[in-house]
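To close the section, here is one more complete example, presented without commentary so you can practise reading it yourself. The ligand is zinc ion.
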Amino acid sequence: MFLNEICKSDRLKSTELLIIRLKETHKLRPNVMEDLRKLLAGFRGEKEMKYYLQFLPEKDCLIIHNLRLYDGKTYFQIDYLILTQRFALILECKNYYGEVHFDSNFNQLIRKVDEKEEGFSDPISQAKRHQRQLQTYFKLHNLPPIPIEFLVIFSNPSTIIKGNPAIKDKVIHSHSFLEKWEQMHLKYKVIVMDRKMLRKVSKNFMKNNTTETVDLLKKYGLQPSDLITGVQCPACEKFAMQRKKRKWFCPHCNSYDTAAHQKAVIDYLLLIKPTITNKEFREFAHITSRETAAKMLVRMKLPSTGENKGRKYHKP
Ligand SMILES: [Zn+2]
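Output:
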């Protein structure tokens, strides 16, 4: 049973917003584009993995996607966690094309495409670290100790996996997952948690599952002035719409919209800073009237603090 929706991570959502707002000629655009491409490939891999997870016994397996927990020192994020009464399984999904070589001497992953090599951090070391952090988390929250397994899964069937044969036990293609699952199921015969405890553990995870605050401007060393301001047209996706007849008008495709500014507010809150004032909103969305801007912000029912001119609207 899936306990949450399979949806894009906060990092991916923010990077998508950034690429829309980052000026066309900015020198860092190719870097952001490359990161976005990787994040999207990763998400596609996770979505494809969902297909195989649907075949797991509905009642016995609780599945959480993008679980981000705090182990007392740092946060760690697991692509998929599968909880059963006998064991827990961490899945690290990778969606790489080409040939990947696990270099166990230096704990790195080398990807080769058309004779060009690129290094990545070793997903086995990453999964082992998450395994230890999850064990620490269980102790920290007084949850019953349970065997924790992990698998590194390559979702692209054409990826060629190379390395020491010993990794075969931990690294698989997604189409071999169900077979691997059967083996694990046979290995763990002892019930460690009753159903009530399993529900308690899963509730604890869902309650402590935290979203990641991603400051992309800081990450790339960008300034707010590097971003395109104004309201984006939802029909043709161009900037910037103008206020006309109490609506938003697009000079590119001549369409009208009443709520297009809402997206601009969200962009501001996710990319620039987690609060926005009436003045900041007017500057960012190109609105002249303070009253109009106030009405728009109030209608969005965002949490707010302060009064009058000092009023700040917060990220929902
Ligand atoms: Zn338009």
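Once you have examined the tokens, check your reading against these statements. The chain has two domains: 10-208, 229-314. The chain has a mean pLDDT of 95.
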